[in-house]
Amino acid sequence: MDEVAGAIADPVRRRILEMLKDGRLSAGEVAERFAISRPAVSRHLRVLRQSGLVRAELIGRQRFYTLDPEPFDALITWLAQFGRPSGWEHRLDALETEVYRARRERRPTTATGSSREEETA
């Protein structure tokens, strides 16, 4: 997880990952999208490859890179503990609480089996 976090700490590497999310690219295609030198892009690709976030495939004289999202799993799991539940989760929790409260109020309250519904009828 530390290696993945270190790899994505750099904005160039994050941008490369975003590009590879859409599909396989050659090293040249990746490099031409940056204003930095090709050797610098190659170093970023090497870091991503060593962290396991990208795979490289040599076809002829070209090296193609593809995203491997599996190493993100441990980091995503770790980060999830710090996330806040969405607004819908709060509303669904409130609905669940109301359903339980309504069920509890409908239960028979005496030993004779009468319930609140019967009392109100």
UniProtKB/TrEMBL annotation:
<keyword id="KW-0238">DNA-binding</keyword>
<keyword id="KW-0804">Transcription</keyword>
<feature type="domain" description="HTH arsR-type">
    <location>
        <begin position="1"/>
        <end position="87"/>
    </location>
</feature>
<dbReference type="InterPro" id="IPR001845">
    <property type="entry name" value="HTH_ArsR_DNA-bd_dom"/>
</dbReference>
<feature type="region of interest" description="Disordered">
    <location>
        <begin position="102"/>
        <end position="121"/>
    </location>
</feature>
<dbReference type="Pfam" id="PF12840">
    <property type="entry name" value="HTH_20"/>
</dbReference>
<dbReference type="InterPro" id="IPR036388">
    <property type="entry name" value="WH-like_DNA-bd_sf"/>
</dbReference>
<dbReference type="InterPro" id="IPR051081">
    <property type="entry name" value="HTH_MetalResp_TranReg"/>
</dbReference>
<keyword id="KW-0805">Transcription regulation</keyword>
<protein>
    <submittedName>
        <fullName>DNA-binding transcriptional ArsR family regulator</fullName>
    </submittedName>
</protein>
<dbReference type="GO" id="GO:0003677">
    <property type="term" value="F:DNA binding"/>
</dbReference>
<dbReference type="InterPro" id="IPR036390">
    <property type="entry name" value="WH_DNA-bd_sf"/>
</dbReference>
<dbReference type="InterPro" id="IPR011991">
    <property type="entry name" value="ArsR-like_HTH"/>
</dbReference>
